[in-house]
Write a structure and sequence with these properties.
This protein has 205 residues and is an alpha+beta fold. A hairpin with a 2-residue loop joins strand 9 (122-132) and strand 10 (135-146). The longest helix is centred in the first third of the chain and has 18 residues, at 2-19. The protein is elongated. It has helices spanning 2-19, 63-67, 84-93, 164-173, and strands at residues 22-25, 30-37, 42-48, 51-54, 59-60, 71-75, 79-80, 102-112, 122-132, 135-146, 149-157, 185-197. Strands 1, 2, 3, 4, 5, 6, 7, 8, 9, 10, 11 and 12 form a twelve-stranded antiparallel β-sheet that branches. It starts with a helix and ends in an 8-residue tail after the last strand. It has one domain: Lipid/polyisoprenoid-binding, YceI-like (Lipocalin, Beta Barrel).
């Protein structure tokens, strides 16, 4: 009897070591942005409401397996800022002046931070290939993972995407509201839920 129990314990340990951890991500992705106005650089936050997310994998043993290769397609005519009048203005004078009405993105790399303090969010960096206004650039982003929430933030410059005309149009339309200053840098972000079981979170570099 003791031998049988010992064998079962060894098999269980082997299977646990083989499978390691299990991460399961949501199929939903929330994509946000924050633009800036006035010399005081006041932020105006919004989100895209028509986002199609194609995850690389729903389940895996690390963030790399789940996220690298994941793609997103965004209809830029569908936004929400909490102000319907502002939404109409942004779509009409900024987004409609871009060469394409879709933003596409793909996660191409991920790397964890070298150090992690117990009780604090796990952190690292992502490289995201973004195509906007028919121009493609690789944008670095920082990620934070805590309590099953995965959040990433980065910064783009509208001029880098050859979108000067679109920026000029919204600047002209909102000149008084922006007090003569519309910034070209925009904070971008995305978030999703990733459940972790049987493991400490590990990420392949």
């Amino acid at each position: 009897m003791k031998n049988i129990l010992l064998i079962l314990m060894v098999l269980f340990s082997f299977n646990y070591a083989k499978t390691g951890c299990v991460l399961v991500q949501s199929k939903d992705l929330n994509v946000t942005w924050k633009a800036y106005k006035t010399l005081g650089k006041l932020g105006v936050s919004g989100q895209f409401t028509a986002v199609k997310y194609l995850p690389n994998q729903i389940e895996g043993k690390n963030f790399k397996e789940l996220l690298v290769g994941s793609k997103v397609s965004i209809d830029i005519s569908q936004i929400f800022t909490g102000n319907p009048t502002r939404d109409i203005t942004l779509v009409k004078h900024f987004f409609s002046n871009l060469k394409s009405q879709t933003i596409k993105a793909k996660i191409i790399a991920i790397k964890r931070s070298d150090k992690h303090e117990k009780g604090k969010p796990r952190t690292g960096t992502l490289d995201v290939e973004i195509t906007m206004n028919k121009k493609t650039l690789v944008i670095p982003m920082k990620y934070y993972y805590s309590n099953e929430h995965f959040d990433a933030t980065g910064t783009i410059d509208i001029f880098d995407f050859d979108a000067k005309d679109a920026l000029s149009a919204i600047h002209k339309s909102c000149y008084d509201l922006h007090k003569g200053k519309t910034w070209s840098d925009v904070t971008i972000g995305f978030s999703t839920m990733i459940k972790a079981t049987l493991c400490n979170i590990e990420i392949k570099k």
